[in-house]
């Protein structure tokens, strides 16, 4: 069965090759046209966008056949596409003799992104465009990869620092009494004031309870501090 690249791969190749409807020389002097087509291109040649699309599909078919015939390990669609993009750019011969292909066929999938980064030179010069293209191909390669099931239990989060305010000290001193006990004690201590609020709006009564709790905490902190100084 003939395998073809997906739309993500075609979009990537079109992006990095660019579309030129008139023949031009690439960075190493090769006459090029369309989406990176180089076969039988003569100076002065012009084509339409439809012709550029046709040439691209024909060139992709060759690159697809190279990858399908050279790689002996299973490939996802995105991984297949990343390699087709590479072959489209560097040629079948370079790919066939590459360390990337050798390591991949040995089952070393993780080596591919690093090996891709070695193909960033043209005419002996490192080109920014190739660096960026290899990065895009690496991103396509790792897209959709599964996370390993060998999970490591996460460490517990560090304790939250306690503010050294009076209220904070009182809260530390509460210890085993618990929040419920503190609230209960606050209500008891402030019962005379609460009794006077029975006929007042509920929200004001709630505010009074909160104030009573804060009052108890502050008073406990002051007593503890006084005892410590004594």
Can you tag this structure with a few keywords?
230 residues; mainly alpha; two-stranded antiparallel ribbon; two-stranded antiparallel sheet; 6% strand; elongated
Query: pLDDT below 50 for ≥5 consecutive residues: which ranges?
Result: 146-155, 160-184, 192-201
Morphology: elongated
- List the secondary-structure elements in sequence, H or E: HEEHHHHHEEHHHHH
Rounded Rg:
36 Å
Strand order of the largest sheet: 1-2
Layout of strands and helices, then pairs:
Blueprint lengths: L6 H11 L2 E6 L5 E4 L14 H22 L6 H14 L1 H5 L2 H7 L6 H5 L4 E2 L2 E2 L1 H15 L23 H9 L3 H12 L1 H5 L6 H28 L1
Antiparallel strand pairs: 1-2, 3-4
Helix pairs in contact: 1-3, 1-7, 2-3, 3-7, 8-11, 9-11
How would you describe what is shown here?
The chain is built from 11 helices and 4 strands; from the N terminus they run αββαααααββααααα. The protein is mainly alpha-helical. The strands form 2 sheets. Strands 1-2 form a two-stranded antiparallel ribbon. α8 (166-174) crosses α11 and α9 (178-189) crosses α11 (202-229). The protein is elongated and about 95 Å long. The model is unreliable at 146-155, 160-184 and 192-201 (pLDDT under 50).
